[in-house]
Design brief:
This protein has two domains: about 15-205, 2-Layer Sandwich (Heat Shock Protein 90), CATH 3.30.565.10; about 215-420, Ribosomal Protein S5, domain 2, CATH 3.30.230. The chain is built from 14 helices and 20 strands. The chain has helices at about 5-10, 15-30, 30-45, 75-80, 105-115, 165-170, 170-190, 215-225, 230-235, 275-285, 325-340, 350-355, 410-415, 420-425; strands at about 50-55, 60-65, 115-120, 130-135, 140-145, 150-155, 195-200, 200-205, 235-240, 245-250, 255-260, 265-270, 270-275, 295, 300-305, 310, 320, 350, 360, 365-370. It binds adenosine-5'-diphosphate (ADP) and magnesium ion.
Length: about 475
């Protein structure tokens, strides 16, 4: 066969990298908020404890993230914009042990393909920093520069070369709402990191790093700083651990409900996930305690051995799959219900006050509401309100609507295990450099040692699982 005829027979061509990145960007970078998420996650993976996000025009003109993390060498600064360039995994086995927020090595390549990006970075051990500028995937400048330790990535004019995508952006108000939500969930998951959000020269949030070693106190402070004192006053702590799964965090008291699902934050191994399924589990735990059209606030952190989950089901990793979805559903519902019970908020049968009528009594607020017999749920487990009883007796598990404990759920059955001791030994410092602070195998190590101002030489950014 001649070359000419071979060419005419060939319909398939390999895309050049710039085009491939531009197309792939559609998966990773749907809007300014997704670019901001990737940049902030990179800062956190780099062990930063101070992250500033600067926005202009709801991110369409500028998204800049400045961190004080471990920085990059000049060689890495140039490599990081290549597709599949990552320091976080090396082999397929590492996928089962992912502890960083990123690992696909696609974000910077994707962002740089559809924007003008300037990265400045410096490691503590280097005398000078390095600056690199990429426009539409093409490097236009790379040179030494003066810059503080850490990394700054400025993304200008997102989608400037993909007009269809730019036109697809929603109103600035909507895009800004998504940006704020992204900032909020990342800030909630990292109370020990200081965050600042500046939009069009106005400071929207300034969140101090929590110095509290108690994760519950730190989270409460962060919730107060983000959402206000009212939220922080109406929180019910949730805390349970089994050998497979643990849940901790806060849900709101039923009285403090919201009109939308906008303030519901669920994390799996410190990664924010959207899960209608598990959201329903939390909602279901409230049963009839919420009026129609009301939703609880919550910030719940699930921790599970990474081998039991697949975070790779979605390009932005916003969705997650458990190997036993039903079991996790039952567990989440049970622990939230138990927590609400411990706060005297679950329905009770009150014969004296209503002549046998079924009521919901919330002693904390003295509120009583009639309930139909269908919604009657006797309080059976853990002697709600008696905190001493928690952890001592193994509760029978939460009652289902029929009043029988869900015996099919092995985690719900083991809810009695005490977790206080475990929690007390979990300190912020252990979250960091895995080499120095070994931690529960499934929790995400960050890459810094709090005791040293320059916490990480950068070696932690490599896949040393
Ligand atoms: N802010 C940062 N500080 C230090 N290193 C960074 C930073 N951002 C990116 N990097 C490096 O660039 C690599 C590529 O980043 P990215 O494209 O987001 O992929 P991933 O985070 O999935 O590895 C990272 O693995 C990391 O080594
Ligand atoms: Mg990343």
């Amino acid at each position: 066969m001649s070359d000419a005829s071979a060419d005419s027979d060939r319909l398939i061509h390999i895309m050049d990298e710039t085009l491939a990145n531009k197309i792939a960007a559609g998966e990773v970078v749907q809007r300014p908020a997704s670019a901001a998420k990737e940049l902030i996650e990179n800062a956190l993976d780099a062990g930063a404890d101070d992250v500033t996000v600067v926005l202009k025009d709801a991110g369409s003109t500028l998204i800049q993230v400045v961190d004080n993390g471990c920085g990059m060498s000049p060689a890495d600064a140039q490599a990081c914009f290549k597709r599949h360039a990552t320091s976080k995994i090396r082999s397929i086995e590492d996928l089962d042990r992912i502890r960083t927020l990123g690992f696909r090595g696609e974000a910077l390549a994707s962002i740089a393909a559809v924007a003008q990006v300037e990265l400045k970075t410096k490691r503590v051990q280097d005398d000078a920093g390095f600056r690199i500028r990429i426009e539409g995937g093409t490097e236009v400048a790379a040179e030494p520069c003066a810059t503080p330790d850490g990394t700054s990535v400025a993304v200008q004019n997102l989608f400037y070369n993909v007009p269809a995508r730019r036109n697809f952006l929603k109103t600035p108000a909507t895009e800004f709402k998504h940006l704020v939500e992204t900032f909020q969930f990342l800030a909630l998951a990292h109370p020990d990191v200081a965050f600042r959000l500046v939009h069009d020269d106005n400071e929207v949030f300034r969140l101090a790093a929590s110095a509290d070693d108690d994760p519950f106190a730190a989270l409460r402070q962060r919730i107060k700083a983000i959402f206000g004192a009212d939220h922080a006053k109406h929180l019910v702590p949730v805390e349970e651990t089994t050998s497979y799964l643990s849940v901790e965090g806060f849900v709101s008291e039923p009285e403090f409900h919201r009109r939308s699902r906008g303030e519901q934050f669920l994390f799996v191994n410190d990664r924010y996930v959207k899960s209608r399924y598990l959201g329903h589990a939390v909602f279901g735990a409230y049963e009839d305690l919420l009026p129609d059209g009301a939703y609880p606030f919550y910030a719940l952190f699930l921790r599970v051995d990474p081998s039991h989950i697949d975070v790779n089901v979605h390009p932005t990793k916003a969705e997650i799959k458990f190997d036993d979805e039903r079991g996790v559903y039952g567990f989440v519902k049970a622990v939230v219900r138990k927590a609400l019970g411990s706060h005297d908020l679950t329905p009770q049968f009150d014969e004296s006050s209503s002549g046998g009528e079924i009521t919901v009594t919330t002693p904390a607020r003295g509120r009583t509401a009639d309930l139909s017999p269908r919604s009657f749920t006797p309080r059976r487990y853990g002697e709600a309100g008696d905190r001493e009883a928690r952890g001592r007796a193994r509760p029978a598990g939460p009652p289902s609507r029929s009043g029988t404990p869900p015996q099919h759920n092995r985690w719900a059955r083991s809810l009695g295990s005490s977790t206080t001791a475990i929690r007390k030994t979990r300190t912020r410092s252990r979250r960091r450099c895995p080499a120095r602070w070994p931690r529960r195998p499934w929790t995400r190590p960050s890459m810094r040692n709090r005791n040293s101002p320059r916490r990480c030489s950068g070696s932690c950014m490599t896949a040393t699982f």
